[in-house]
Design a protein that fits this description.
The protein is of the alpha+beta class and 488 residues long. The chain is built from 13 helices and 27 strands. α1 runs parallel beside α2 and α3 crosses α7. The longest helix is centred in the C-terminal third of the chain and has 19 residues.
């Protein structure tokens, strides 16, 4: 029966492995190694096996390995190897382990909402953690790291004391050395805090074995929270994409954010070059062990997919252009029913882009490369711009500018081939795009006499915005001398 618990600690390239017996609490062995590929491939399988080990606790946030791109990649490699070996493994940050270790060494039992202050020092360095006890464990309210100097300690110890306490009124103060190799904390901290009858001074060196066992118990039994520190993000994690030369951060898990963390956001299909979808969903997760993962999900919108079924047979002589996000799909009457136009990428449609980086404008898919590499030459988001009043156009697109003149309350200004900026109304630019729709429809439906477009708005639900779009689309159709019909 499995009875051993492994603990992998480390700093820089050095690893320290401690193995304890859960029942006796005794240390069975300690091993030193280096954070390298051979540790993953050779040493881990020799040290641990699923028969003898209940779990392995990983604490390698400060490890640097030349064999891996960064600390995170080394962590993932260790976890993947242990998972492959079918050994349960948990990750805990150095800070959380040390904070728990101080509570374990003090053997302090808090009541709900008690404030505990953990103070650790080594030389001139001081680290303060303010914790509040909750029904799920200790919540970190404040972490403060600062330096002191001899003059300050002699002439103004009150300033150090004020920095330590801030505005909290702790039920207990736990003082420990911040350096694990030194058993005693700095004397000046002890002298400063001993005036309080709430002070407990602990030596963490004597509690490594118990701390490993208690940490395992906290992971194994979520209801056991006596010494549990609620995990938080130990660094910032960002998820986004690079478009052109600009990085777009869409989700941020901030330092100090409660874990586990999960957040998602939808982005248009063009952002990530995935076209067999209507949108992309970006998902960022950070588990309790500070391990980030992400997903890119391709989203199919039922409102687009089911559009042909919604359209009445009375409209069969009219091709229907339906807008969603910054894209459009085309439905035409074929074989006794409405179907998506294959030449317009079927159910997925095309993004409404116009690129002016060459002598002749490029449209939709042909403009996507310029959209990524030279976005100031590309016009996009036309439907969104058309839905806004002139007063709402204050926030400019990051790639082109919204402006106006005496005749036109809304103009889109963009870079043009030859280095000259140009400007046009949304209706004029939409007319250019509708002409491309016209070509695609004529090519695939040669027998259809095309005198009218039908328009359907999948996303827009606000009447005021829809009326603005309709007005400008009528202008666009007028420029093309083609009729327009708005389908509801």
């Amino acid at each position: 029966m499995a009875s051993l618990i492994g603990f992998i600690d480390g700093a820089n390239a050095q690893l320290y492995i401690t193995i304890v017996h859960e029942s006796t609490g005794s240390i069975v062995s300690t091993v030193q190694s280096f954070a390298c590929q051979s540790f993953i491939n050779i040493i881990l399988p020799k040290l641990f096996n699923s028969t003898d080990f209940k779990a392995v606790i990983i604490n390698t946030c400060n490890v640097i390995s030349t064999d891996f791109k960064d600390t995170l990649q080394f962590r993932k490699a260790v976890k993947e190897k242990l998972d492959q070996m079918k050994i349960i493994n948990y990750y805990i940050t150095k800070e959380n382990f040390v904070q728990s270790q101080c509570l374990i060494a003090a053997n302090y039992s808090s009541n709900l909402d008690d404030i505990v202050l953990i103070v650790m020092g080594a030389g001139e360095n001081v680290v303060v953690s303010e914790l509040r006890y909750t029904e799920n464990g200790y919540k970190i309210l404040r972490t403060d790291r600062f330096l002191t100097n001899e003059r300050q300690r002699l002439e103004n110890p009150e300033a150090i004391s004020q920095r330590i306490y801030s505005f909290c009124k702790p039920k207990k103060i736990i003082l420990s050395s911040a350096n694990f190799e030194l058993s005693a904390p700095p004397k000046y901290l002890k002298a400063m805090l001993k005036l309080s009858n709430k002070l407990i001074v602990v030596d963490r060196q004597n509690f490594i074995d118990i701390s490993i066992i208690e940490t395992f118990k906290m992971f194994d039994d979520k209801s056991y929270v006596k010494f549990r520190i609620l995990p938080i993000c130990s660094r910032e994690y960002h998820l986004g994409f690079k478009y052109g030369s600009k990085c777009h951060r869409k989700i941020v898990a901030e330092f100090g954010e409660a874990l586990p963390f999960k957040k998602s956001v939808f982005v248009s299909k063009s952002c990530l070059e995935f076209y067999n979808a209507h949108r992309n969903e970006l998902v960022l997760e950070v588990d309790e062990g500070n391990l980030p993962t992400f997903q890119v999900k391709e989203i199919i919108l039922d409102s687009v997919k089911n559009l042909p079924k919604k359209l009445s047979a009375n409209l069969k002589g009219i091709p229907i252009i339906a807008f969603y996000d910054d894209s459009s799909v085309i439905c035409v009457w074929k074989n006794g029913k409405f179907q998506f136009l294959d030449g317009w990428n079927g159910m997925y449609g095309k993004q409404l882009l116009i690129a002016f980086d060459e002598v002749k404008p490029k449209f939709c898919d042909e403009a996507s490369e310029a959209h990524r590499r030279k976005p100031s030459f590309v016009v996009s988001d036309l439907i969104k711009i058309m839905s806004r009043s002139p007063e709402e156009q204050q926030i400019n697109n990051c790639h082109f500018k919204i402006t106006k003149d005496s005749k036109n309350p809304i103009l889109i200004e963009f870079d043009n081939y030859g280095g000259i900026k140009k400007a046009a109304t949304p209706a004029f630019l939409m007319a250019m795009l509708l002409k491309e729709h016209f070509k695609a429809i004529k090519e695939e439906t040669t027998n259809l006499k095309l005198t009218e477009f039908g328009f359907y708005f999948i996303d827009e639900t606000e009447d005021e915005k829809i009326e603005r779009i309709k007005k400008q689309i009528k202008e666009s159709c007028g420029m093309l001398k083609i009729g327009c019909n708005f389908v509801t």
